[in-house]
Amino acid sequence: MSKKWTEEVLGTDKVIIAMCHFTALPGDPGFDEKGGMEAVVERARREMLKLQEGGVDAIMFSNEFSLPYLTKVKTETVAAMARIIGEIKGDLHIPFGVNVLWDPEKSLDLAKATGAKFVREIFTGVYASDFGIWDTNCGEVVRHQHAIGAQDVKLLFNIVPEAAKYIQRDDIAQIAKSTVFNCRPDALCVSGLTAGAATDSQVLKTVKNEVPQTIVFANTGVRKENVAEQLKIADGAVVGTTFKKDGIFENAVDRERVKEFMDVVKEFRNK
């Protein structure tokens, strides 16, 4: 049986991808003009090192505090993210990916420029969302991926977008099946309503059962208390809020919380 791409690219099955959330960037409403980009870079470096030292398998950099999000991201955001990654990646010794919220083409541009192994995005569907009507065009995005030579970048499709609902589609099994058939994702990500909201185990199981040959990640709300249960179903998890101090989205990463979580994961893998 051939290896899963997660084993080949990220080094393990049942992989844990940790989110490294950048604070607000130039052009964002919350950007700290006084601290400037230097403060953003140094915060990102500290967060990244805590995650790496805590034992995660991979890191995904995202502009999580560019609230409210855009679906067509500005050039200054991508430029700022590229600078941050360029300055800190010399201290990074595990694979990484990127997520430019919520713009798949810009995510691929950033991945190609920085050497990221994967991107996570909303590639398919039409939604009613907190950001208005949210439309996508997967065919254009994949053609852009090939045009810039980013064919080796793995595409993680978020099929249950946070803060959004499919327009006239609610059968998650059929969504998973049609997405895999039409778009050939490298992985499907299944989310709760918002960052930190638990992924429903039954929804996760429904998706995995429908597309058993496709990598499926629990995308939000995975905690030390439920990670073993989630990994019995999923091929891995994307984890952000859980690794923050007191499990609060706005807080900085807590290295001890990361280590305690990864100890549970390692125990699960060794069973």
UniProtKB/TrEMBL annotation:
Pfam families named among the record's database cross-references: BtpA
Family matches, as InterPro entries: BtpA, RibuloseP-bd_barrel
Domain of life from the UniProt record: Bacteria
Protein family: Belongs to the BtpA family.
Protein name: BtpA/SgcQ family protein
Organism expressing this protein natively: Anaerostipes hominis
